Structure formats: structure tokens, C-alpha cells
Amino acid sequence: MPVDKVTWHQVGRVAEPGRYMFRFGWLTVSAEDLAVWEQFPHAAFTLVRTPAAKDDDEFHLGAFELREDASHGEQ
What we know:
Number of helices: 1
Shape: globular
Order of helices and strands: EEEHEE
Strand order of the largest sheet: 1-4-5-3-2
Radius of gyration: 12 Å
Strand content: 35-45%
């Protein structure tokens, strides 16, 4: 099953902006993304494939939705 949204919990509550390797590929997390998660820890971001990525699965975070609690969709 492909991953299309991720929560802060699912990406290990990363604390710094940067590029991280996950089971679905590389993910770039910005300072702005982290600011959203710090304010809304259960927010789920849409994964957006980076256009320049040719061989590797490379993503950044797109739009987010606010979730009430951590039990919704976290595995």
C-alpha cells in the first residue's frame, strides 16, 4: 500500500529541517513544516514527489490536514 500522507509520529518526530530516508523514499522536511507540526502535532501532510527526482523516490511535504488525535491513520 503506497504512502500518500504522513504524520510527525510516522517520520519519527524529526526535530531539524533536512533530508531523511524512509521506507517510501527520501523526504525533505522544511522549517515551516516543523513549525506546523509543533503547533499541530497530529497534522498529516500530503507527500509530493519532487519533479527533479529521476531514479530515487524523492518527496517534500505539501498540503496538510488537521486531525483530532493520533489514533486516526497512524500505524
